[in-house]
């Protein structure tokens, strides 16, 4: 191990210091017209019912829309869900917080998990508002939103639950089919109604990944896209019994995936700091947006605008309009072919001050 000779960083390696300098230099870039926030951003969602307002969850324990911060949690907020007039936020404090959007006043807290809450999902069943939460305690709780009562506790995963998704095809107004993703790394299915809840085909969970599955999203064709710590995004085909139809290989963990149905793109956010645009039809990588300086934690598609959030505490915006995307590609290619800037040797700080240099010179003169 090469330890730094800098007295101020004596216990850090040169490699770690170089990585710190790289991230600090990259953080200041203006790619994606960044909005800079006060702490790490862990999730993003929008509220179509209120003019498409954006909400982000921060590690500082706050949930915010543009111009307002919803306070209360004293621990990182990890996930968000929106109803007609309520925002729900899962938290490291093992609870789900909620606020009324129109008044911005705090509402109920949902207490029941024994570990971090990692995902929340809002839906209606039998005319009743329902909240579902998945936790690092490996359980899923089904809540009555208005009373705060626990209707069901679903257990089947052996490790933390990362995400929940409503099946748009097999669900009905009175019964929801929910898919859950975990560190197992299995994906399980649940049949949930007001009266009862049970796992669907518990003997045969979906096991297409090698390790943790962080995100699951249904596309317009009702196939399931998954993002995993095994460095892949996969499309699981409904017609093939949830077997892998497409695999997109990445250099690191993939935290999120989004589908752009109009453009024919699959968009992925990776721990290596990049946002990637893939051709859905061919599975080929089309473009990389390299603006973030820490891992990408969430993606949100609004029309032809893509938003990405990151541990670097920024929200960045990327245009998916054909002309803008092509210009972005050309700019990256031009940068690759440009001649490298001449490398300058770093200016080395003197080891001794001027006074110390004179004292040393006098000492050397006196020893002759």
Would you kindly provide a written description of the structure presented here, covering whatever features stand out?
- This protein is mainly beta and 368 residues long.
- The protein is 12% helix and 43% strand.
- The model has no long low-confidence stretch (mean pLDDT 90).
Brief sketch in words of this structure:
With 368 residues, this protein is mainly β. It has helices at residues 14-27, 322-337, 354-366, and strands spanning 35-36, 41-47, 53-58, 63-65, 68-70, 77-82, 86-91, 95-100, 110-111, 117-125, 128-135, 139-144, 150-155, 161-166, 176-182, 187-192, 197-200, 213-218, 224-228, 232-237, 243-249, 254-260, 265-270, 275-279, 285-289, 296-302, 305-310, 314-319.
Q: Secondary structure elements and their pairing?
A:
Layout: H1 14-27, E1 35-36, E2 41-47, E3 53-58, E4 63-65, E5 68-70, E6 77-82, E7 86-91, E8 95-100, E9 110-111, E10 117-125, E11 128-135, E12 139-144, E13 150-155, E14 161-166, E15 176-182, E16 187-192, E17 197-200, E18 213-218, E19 224-228, E20 232-237, E21 243-249, E22 254-260, E23 265-270, E24 275-279, E25 285-289, E26 296-302, E27 305-310, E28 314-319, H2 322-337, H3 354-366
Antiparallel strand pairs: 1-28, 2-3, 3-4, 4-5, 6-7, 7-8, 8-9, 10-11, 11-12, 12-13, 14-15, 15-16, 16-17, 18-19, 19-20, 20-21, 22-23, 23-24, 24-25, 26-27, 27-28
Helix/strand class: mainly beta
**Sheet of most strands:** 4 strands, antiparallel
- Mean pLDDT equals 90
Helical proportion?
A: 10-25%
- Residue ranges: pLDDT <50 for 5 or more in a row? none
The share of residues in extended strands comes to: 35-45%
Number of helices: 3
Anisotropy-based shape: globular
Radius of gyration, whole Å? 25 Å
Q: Could you tell me how far the N terminus lies from the C terminus, measured between alpha carbons in angstroms?
A: 40 Å
Strand order of the largest sheet: 1-28-27-26
User: How many strands appear in the DSSP assignment?
Assistant: 28
């Amino acid at each position: 191990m090469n330890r730094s000779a800098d007295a101020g960083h004596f216990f850090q390696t040169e490699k770690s210091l170089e990585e710190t300098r790289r991230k600090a230099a990259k953080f200041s870039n203006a790619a994606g017209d960044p909005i800079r926030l006060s702490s790490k951003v862990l999730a993003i969602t929008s509220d179509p019912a209120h003019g498409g307002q954006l909400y982000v969850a921060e590690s500082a324990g706050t949930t915010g829309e543009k111009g307002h911060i919803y306070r209360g949690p004293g621990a990182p907020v990890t996930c968000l869900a929106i109803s007609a007039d309520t925002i729900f936020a899962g938290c490291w404090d093992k609870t789900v917080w909620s606020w009324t959007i129109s008044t911005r006043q705090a509402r109920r807290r949902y207490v029941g998990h024994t570990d971090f809450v990692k995902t929340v999902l809002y839906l209606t069943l039998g005319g009743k508002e329902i909240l579902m939460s998945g936790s690092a305690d490996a359980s899923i709780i089904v809540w009555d939103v208005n009373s705060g009562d626990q209707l069901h506790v679903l257990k089947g995963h052996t490790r933390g639950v990362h995400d929940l998704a409503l099946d748009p095809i097999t669900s009905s107004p009175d019964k929801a089919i929910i898919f859950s993703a975990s560190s197992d790394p299995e994906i399980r299915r649940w049949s949930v109604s007001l009266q009862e809840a049970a796992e669907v085909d518990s003997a045969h969970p979906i096991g297409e990944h090698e390790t943790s599955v962080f995100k699951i999203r249904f596309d317009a064709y009702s196939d399931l896209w998954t993002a995993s710590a095994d460095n892949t995004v996969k499309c699981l085909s409904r017609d093939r019994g949830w077997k892998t139809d497409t695999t997109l290989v990445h250099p690191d963990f993939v935290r999120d995936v989004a589908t752009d149905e109009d453009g024919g793109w699959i968009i992925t956010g990776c721990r290596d700091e990049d946002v990637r645009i893939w051709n859905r039809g061919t599975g080929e990588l089309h473009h990389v947006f390299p603006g973030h300086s820490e891992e990408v934690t969430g993606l949100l598609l609004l029309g032809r605008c893509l938003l990405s959030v990151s541990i670097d505490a920024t929200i960045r915006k990327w245009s998916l309009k054909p002309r803008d995307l092509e210009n972005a590609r050309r700019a990256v290619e031009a940068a690759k072919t440009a001649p490298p800037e001449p490398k300058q040797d770093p200016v080395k700080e003197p080891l001794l001050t001027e006074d110390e240099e004179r004292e040393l010179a006098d000492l050397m003169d006196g020893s002759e």
